[in-house]
Amino acid sequence: MKQPLGVILAGGLASRMGGGDKGRLMLGGQSLISRVIDRLEPQVAGLALNANGDPARFADLGLTVLPDSVGRHPGPLAGVLAGMDWAAGEGASHIVTAAADTPFFPADLVPQLLLAAEAQGKPIALAATHDPEKGALRQPTFGLWPVDLRDDLRGALDEGIRKVVAWTDRHGTALAVFPGTPFDPFFNVNTPEDLTLAEGLLA
């Protein structure tokens, strides 16, 4: 498999942060989205941003901006589809997605997703964290997605499917399980309190 392309998912409404672009929030002197770019870019063959609204507001990032092709903010699956369609035009076979508000995700995310998909013989791989009591907790915005499933995904969105796992479970999903200690690497910033917690994790 060729190195996948990367897609940062920033299409959400950020309602718990009062709206706006969560990725622009500053953490330790650097925006959340810049931190995500710095982690994902070395792991992929190219990078794009899934975001809605005026793409010019992201011009400083130097990334291709991919809007959802499905209306009414249907959630991360729409961003996955936008990424798949872009990757198909680039001749790529797979994409890897990461959320724009999750600054601490693993620096080996992509190789671990690739290994999980190959070892477990599944078309899709999702990241997960290990919980001693609950087992593997899936992180549905961090995944490896084959581009040749894009028409199937488009049909599922037209059917009204919105939950990532409701679609991935149709196809079989490998899990790349990461340690959940000393803190959850997929901790994401949803509220002002989360931002304060994230500042503490930098210390």
Summarize this structure as a short list of keywords or feature phrases.
203 residues, alpha/beta, 6 helices, 9 strands, 24% strand, globular
Strand order of the largest sheet: 5-4-1-6-8-7-9
**Structural class by helix and strand composition:** alpha/beta
Task: Write the H/E string, N to C.
Answer: EEEHEEHEHEEHHEH
Oligomer type: single chain
Dominant shape = globular
Distance between the termini: 38 Å
Radius of gyration: 16 Å
Number of helices: 6
Strand composition percent: 15-25%
Q: Which spans have pLDDT < 50 for at least 5 consecutive residues? A: 14-18
* Range of helix content: 25-40%
Number of strands: 9
| Biggest sheet features | 7 strands, mixed
Mean pLDDT: 91
Question: Would you write up a description of this structure?
Answer:
This protein has 203 residues and is an alpha/beta fold. It has six helices and nine strands; from the N terminus they run βββαββαβαββααβα. The protein has helices spanning 32-40, 76-89, 109-120, 150-159, 164-171, 192-202; strands spanning 5-9, 26-27, 30-31, 47-50, 64-66, 94-99, 124-131, 135-146, 173-178. The strands form two sheets. Strands 5-4-1-6-8-7-9 form a seven-stranded mixed β-sheet, sandwiched between helices. A hairpin with a 2-residue loop joins β2 (26-27) and β3. It starts with a strand and ends with a helix.
